[in-house]
Amino acid sequence: MNHTDETDSTLYPSNLLRNIARLNTTPSTVQYILTLDIDIFPAPDLFHHLVSFYTQITTIEDFNRTLYVIPAFEIHLDTVKRSVPLPQNKRELILLWNDNQLQPFEGDVCPTCQFLTNYQAWKQEASDDKIVPLFRPHYSQPWQPYYIGPKNVPIFDQRFKSHAHARISQVRIIFNE
Fold first, then answer.
1. Do the beta carbons of residue 148 and residue 52 sit within 8 Å?
2. pTM of the model
3. Which of 51, 90, 102, 161 could pair covalently with 10 via S-S, beta carbons 3.0-4.6 A apart?
4. Domain ranges for the chain
């Protein structure tokens, strides 16, 4: 477990840095935040698709209490070494996935950490890059999704200082509210 105390000398306090970035850079006009780590690259058109998606939300409940999980993938090292370009859309991403040049995020390290993201349902959805809610997952540990949600979601627990449980703790708190 990566829970540490205040005297810990870990050089990379992930959750502290996430909270600093979020609390000190989010303008008051921003209603939603996208949780990403520094090594995650969003799709080039994600912002435009999000604007389109959020303008279709009709109820305050949907607006204030819903997290929208974004599937995350990792490119295999040999694919990077061959200078294969990053996929620019869902179609290109699925082609690389079918060709085993990338995989769902942490699929080989912690398959249960992303299991509830339901990559297969996302893959089969024929909406191209359009954002479409596919299902409502029921939380179970360990799950550490990347998501878009209201800016007032709880901050990350700063006692966790490495990647393994850092995001899991925050998602657990959100689902228990």
1. no
2. 0.77
3. 161
4. 30-176
